[in-house]
Amino acid sequence: MTSKILAVDTATENCSVALKIGDDVIARCEMAPREHTTKVLPMVDEVLAEGGITLNQLDALAFGRGPGSFTGVRIGIGIAQGLAFGADLPMVGISTLAAMAEQVHRLQGGEQVISAIDARMNEIYVAQFTRQNNGDWLENHPEAVTRPEQFCPENLDGQWLLAGTGWQAYPDLAERLNLSVSKEGVLFPESQDMVALADFALSRGEAVAAELASPIYLRDTVTWKKLPGRE
Q1: Distance between CA atoms of 91 and 97, rounded to whole angstroms?
Q2: Is residue 78 part of a domain?
Q3: Where is the Gcp-like domain (predicted)?
Q4: Is 90 exceeded by the pLDDT of residue 224?
Q5: Is the pLDDT of residue 28 over 50?
Q6: What angle is formed at CA 116 by the lines to CA 62 and CA 25, rounded to 5 degrees?
Q7: Does any domain span residue 231?
Q8: Which residues on neighbouring strands pair with residue 95, listed in sequence order?
Q9: Cα–Cα–Cα angle for 76, 47, 35, nearest 5°?
Q10: HSE-up of 88 (CA within 13 Å, CB side)?
């Protein structure tokens, strides 16, 4: 695959940008929970300059479509859409959960991964993946938002590695599933793993025009409890 793809992700506390040109990847990544809007565009400029390429020379622009922080996901898609509109680029959304599975493979060689992000409100965003021979990922358990005690993965035969903040937030989950959490494990998605997945998404025809790009929140409705004394 020789696609030239730029990826942007701000869906979690981590802020990252990556440029893929053929088999080469140039990446920037920084933990910046409240500085996404000031960090992303300079990162974009840096990777494009290092790659010696302009936005107009890209084949597509990928973005972290969630799940993740509501604000973070909106920031990421907004910035990505602005870049795509300006360069007339198609866009492709990449699951943050799948990106963490890819990162587990890149760093630890894992081929069976359960990714879980702390969704707050006593819930997690979670999905279960198995790596295919072509390098793409199969969802054994589709993306969902659920209470940790209600998550029931598919067959857990073989070695399963864990990714995401959900396992630290709810340690009883791993204990219930008889799985161990690595202290050096993957906690947040990174754009350099999204560009790898974007190639597969493009080959499946998942690219859309910038105005049609949309995030994935999973949590459609939220019930807020009123504070005492407030109407």
Answers
A1: 18
A2: yes
A3: 30-213
A4: no
A5: yes
A6: 30
A7: no
A8: 66
A9: 40
A10: 2
